[in-house]
């Protein structure tokens, strides 16, 4: 399911206009993104949680040349499915 399919499903289920459904979905995604940008954890009970994982700087190798390269510290978003979602998928 992509964003457009989600908008259409919301439109049909809630019996609202496509424009309103798109606005609701966009607000939802924006709030999740804003919270994660601030380093906050987002938890949707029964579905999933999103969090930011921080990595320290480390020394790696360029696979082409074998040259040592310093990898900068970084933050990456992570998704962890909730118990109910795992059980529902693994029926």
Short description:
By secondary structure, the chain is of the alpha+beta class.
Commentary on this structure:
With 91 residues, this protein is α+β, with helices and mostly antiparallel strands. The chain folds into two domains: 1-40; 43-91, IHF-like DNA-binding proteins (HU Protein, Chain A), CATH 4.10.520.10. The chain contains three helices and five strands; from the N terminus they run ααβββββα. It has helices at 3-14, 18-37, 83-89, and strands spanning 42-44, 48-55, 58-61, 68-71, 74-81. A three-stranded antiparallel β-sheet has the order 1-2-5. A two-stranded antiparallel sheet has the order 3-4. It is elongated and about 60 Å long. The two termini are 20 Å apart.
- Categorize the overall geometry: elongated
Give the integer mean of the pLDDT values: 95
The strand line-up of the biggest sheet is 1-2-5
| H/E topology pattern | HHEEEEEH
Give the count of structural domains.
2
**What would CATH call the class of the largest domain?**
Few Secondary Structures
Residue share in helices?
40-55%
Name of the CATH superfamily of the largest domain: IHF-like DNA-binding proteins
The major pleated sheet works out as: 3 strands, antiparallel
Regions with pLDDT < 50 over 5+ consecutive residues? none
User: What's the total count of β strands?
Assistant: 5
**Radius of gyration using CA atoms only:** 19 Å
Assigned CATH architecture of the largest domain:
Irregular
The helix count comes to 3
